[in-house]
Structures are given as structure tokens and as C-alpha cells.
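Customer ticket, subject: "Can you confirm the structure for EamA domain-containing protein?"

Message body: Hello, I'm evaluating your service for our small team and ran a test protein. I'd like someone to confirm that this is what the system normally returns, since I don't have a reference to compare against.
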Amino acid sequence: MNTLVWTLWTATVLLDTGGQLAFKAAAGDPEAGDGLARWKHMLSRPWLWIGGACYVLEFLAWIAFLSLVPLGRGVLLGSINIVAIMLAGRWLFGEKLTPWRLAGMGLIGAGVAMVGAGA
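Agent reply: Thanks for trying us out. I re-ran your input and got the following:
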């Protein structure tokens, strides 16, 4: 894969991970309340808008990425987002990484490495 493909792939991983983290931060705010009040509170916070912006930019990067690689390869390479989000969730929100999740992350990582290498 050339430099542009790697750059776009990295951008999609970072933007998707950033978007998920921002949405989690918006949704997990203890001051949010319930029902309609919760939505009003979330809409007034920057995390929701940062997450949305990340998703718009990720969509554009993803379309550009898919224009350069076969669909099957692109989608498989994109699955590394799962690993990045789980690691970031652990780091920022203290979420659990059980042995099963770690094993799954290892399998996903190995699969992405194989697909990326052209296997």
C-alpha cells in the first residue's frame, strides 16, 4: 500500500476512535439527567459535536480510502478500529479488558496484519 492509502487508513482509525470516545464522553456525563433533559444537556456540550465532526471527516476519509483499495481488503483493515476503541476505552474510561476481549483483540490484530500484508 502506498503512502496515501496508509494515511487515509490511519485517519479513519483515529477519527472513528475519536468519534466513539467523544460520544461516550457526551453520553456518560453524570449531569445529563434523564429523557429530554438528557438530550438537551448533551446537545449543549462540545463532546457530541466533536464526535459528529469526527464522523463526518471519517466518512470522507473512508470513501477516499475505499476508492484506492478493494472493498474486502478495506473493510477488513477497518476492523482494527475495534481494537483501538477498546484500548482507548480502557485508558480513558477504565473499561474492563477481560481475557476474552484481549484474545479477540489479538485475533483482530493478527487478521488485520495478514490482510495488510496481502495474505
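A couple of notes from the result: The helical segments are 3-27, 35-43, 46-66, 71-78, 80-93, 99-116. Residues 3-116 form one domain. Feel free to reply with more questions.
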